[in-house]
Amino acid sequence: MDSRTARILRAVAAVFVFVTAAYHLWWGFPRSLVYLAAFGTGVPPDPRPFLFVALGVILLAGPYLVSFDVVSLRTAYAGAALLLVGSIAAWVFWHATGHGAFLVDGFSAPASGGGGHHHGDQNTVLLVLSHYNTEPIEAAIKTVELGAVAIFATLLRTDPAVTSVAEPAANADQTETTET
Questions:
Q1: 74-48-136 Cα angle (round to 5)
Q2: What is the 3-state secondary structure (H, E, C) of 66-93?
Q3: How does DSSP classify residue 179?
């Protein structure tokens, strides 16, 4: 991959990460404030606001950490991809387990919610696909996250800034073995 293509992919990945982080902060921050205001009255019924804020902050901190050489580009690509895959997996898990019904003893999530949101006994693939119709914003964010994962995986394998760092070490190993 040439450096121009890598720069374009980095820019697209940055936009995808910013969109994902902004959404998670937009959704999670006000809800976490409500739960913090009720601190001491028991376990919050929904852990997602705190997790959303943490994910948003970590995603926004990534470029800062790379620009000040705290984290290598290779580590940032791998870390961002893993965080976003984790976000997608957590979203699927949340919906496949009845919106957190596993967190509360004796609670059974209703089979349907607002806007045609229905779970019933669907398999996980059909459940995820149904959310693309019933929850278009969530679907758009998960698509953006999936696109970012694909870009980070591509950059991890083909970005000249990452592969050129690894090549001298590989060449040094080959030189040492040929000299002996």
A1: 85
A2: HHCCCCCHHHHHHHHHHHHHHHHHHHHH
A3: H
